[in-house]
Amino acid sequence: MHNSGKSLVAGQWLGGDEQGCFYSFFPASNGLGDQPIYAVTPAQVTAAGEAADEAFKQYRQTSAKQRAEFLVCIGEQIMELGDELLNVTHLETGLPMARLQGERSRTVNQLKAFADGLLKPLYEPIEESAQPERLPLPKPATRLSSLPLGPVAVFGASNFPYAFSTLGGDTASALSAGCPVIVKGHPAHPLTSEMMAMAMEKAIKLCHMPVAVFSLLQSNNPSISHALVGHPLVKAVGFTGSYQVASQLQQTIYQREEVIPFYGELGSINPQIVLPEKVQQDGPELAQQLCQALLMGNGQFCTSPGLWIVPSPGTEFVHSARDFLQQQGSDSVLTPGIANSYVCAVEALAINSHLKDLASSKVQQDFHVPARLFQLNAADFIKNKQLHQEIFGPCALIVTYDDQNELLSLVNSLSGQLTASIHGTNSELASAAELVENLRYKVGRLIFNQMPTGVEVCASMNHGGPYPASTDVRSTSVGLMAMQRFLRPICYQNLPVELSDI
User: Fold this and answer.
1) Which of 191, 201, 174 is nearest to 11 (CA)?
2) Please, is 106 exposed, middle or buried when counting C-beta atoms within 10 Å of its C-beta (0-12, 13-18, 19+)?
3) pLDDT, tens digit (0-9, with 9 covering 90-100), for 106-131
């Protein structure tokens, strides 16, 4: 199988703008690949949107069974790519092979989960019978159902090349809903995106789906992203990425004649709250577990624990975390841009007079980034809103609190988060009602005595949260409820029996 560097636009592999080509970056070797990636042109973005709109007219009429078979087939074609997919992605991301194998399985299982959800839906249409005898006015017969929105633009994520990218959760949930998908591939792993598009192309042919039900647009030019979300035939956007890029895309959407839903998952610092009895009982062990969670994916998970809130002085906990982290090696990050942003953010922390620079892992290559750990007290953290922002990479703050009141004040100062964890003994958790009450209005998922890293794909999962963790607090980007983002309600009143199967 040979990568071409092209985009898949409505069933055709197109070369795009040869003057605007770019190359894959290989983090482990700190070098570039030799395959040019040809950036799509604005005209090709327009063509993809128009073709997707035409495909929508056919795809929205497919049955739940047909779409379920399509999703399963996509997963099968991903597996058919074999080790070549893993090898290419390993080069483009530097992620360990075991991690990529697990993420590939998760992606395939995610497609199967949506297929099962189509065959056994969580919600059935709501039907209410007519009441012609009701006074003062008769009640008509009504049925509440849903319709797909139309073509959906999906933005691949840098940190999850399978599960949150080309054929990841946003694509799977949109296809489940009956919406064609136009993916803007992430420039951090364009060869991986192309291979996944090859798998999709085969599934489309095998399942006799309209060819424009899926397109992949390759580009590292931000103007293409804005052209995509501004396309008048695109009806919703699924995005995983930074707050800054999301804000820029939202501004383009606000300028449209029709403002469309923008479902952005933007990350968070995922506070880890340790209660007094727990830190006395399991402090050193818990400190090491948090370090290990921080180092997963080299801190490049949206659920990475970036804020550890422990009782003052927390000496044994702090020393254990410090000693453990200093013994760890360094690693590369996904892109030079991420590395630069991380280094700048950490340098700003290091010169902050309120922070104690606790630990740094051992730097093993000059292009690696070390894991870093800092400490400060709750009062200083609450006052400095800059410290509440996510640092994308292996960096965490330990914040110490004096008592319950200060802990509650700290929680109340937090912005919206994807997750938070409370680590406590059984007796502490039993009396933590006020803490839980305050914290649950800050998060999309509240965890007890577990690390935040890892998101289960299931019907009861919520991966979202109050702004700025996500752009729509009512939505999730993981789990079967994610499909609801790309559906709209419709009520049928006095529906004739002859049309009852619509």
Assistant:
1) 201
2) buried
3) 999 999 999 999 999 988 899 999 99
Cα–Cα distance measured from residue 109 to residue 217, given in angstroms and rounded to the nearest whole number: 25
Q: Are 222 and 187 in contact (CB under 8 A)?
A: no
Distance separating alpha carbons of residues 372 and 322, to the nearest angstrom: 9
In the chain, % of residues over pLDDT 70: 100
Place 231 in a pLDDT band, splitting at 50, 70 and 90: very high
Average pLDDT over residues 272-286: 97
Q: Answer positive or negative: Cα dihedral of 46, 50, 55, 56.
A: positive
Given pLDDT bands bounded at 50, 70 and 90, which one contains residue 1? low
Is 272:452 a contact under the CB 8 Å cutoff? yes
- 389 and 475 share a domain? no
Whole-number average pLDDT of the chain? 96
- At 500, the pLDDT band (50, 70, 90 cuts) reads confident
DSSP 440: T
Q: What is the mean pLDDT of residues 210-218?
A: 98
Q: Model pTM?
A: 0.95
- Domain assignment present for residue 132? The answer is no
CA 6, CA 218: separation in Å to the nearest integer? Answer: 7
Token pair 């606000």 is at which residue? 254
Q: 63: number of CA atoms within 13 Å, CB side?
A: 6
Contact 171, 183 (CB under 8 A): yes
- E strand or H helix that includes residue 390: none
3-state class of 491 per DSSP? strand
The residue segments making up the domain with residue 354 are: 271-448
What are the residue numbers of the active site?
265, 302
In the chain, the amino acid numbered 328 is Q
- What the block records as the tokens of 6 is 């092209």
Q: Are residues 318 and 337 in the same domain?
A: yes
Inter-residue contact 53 to 104 (CB < 8 Å): no
b/e map 288-297, b = 16+ CB within 10 Å? bbbbebbbbb
Rg (CA), the chain: 24
**Count of structural domains, the chain:** 2
> pLDDT at residue 19 above 80?
no
pLDDT at 123: 85
Return the pLDDT at 122: 85
Contact 395, 349 (CB under 8 A): yes
User: How far apart are alpha carbons 141 and 471 in whole angstroms?
Assistant: 36
State which amino acid sits at residue 320: S
Same domain assignment for residues 474 and 333? no
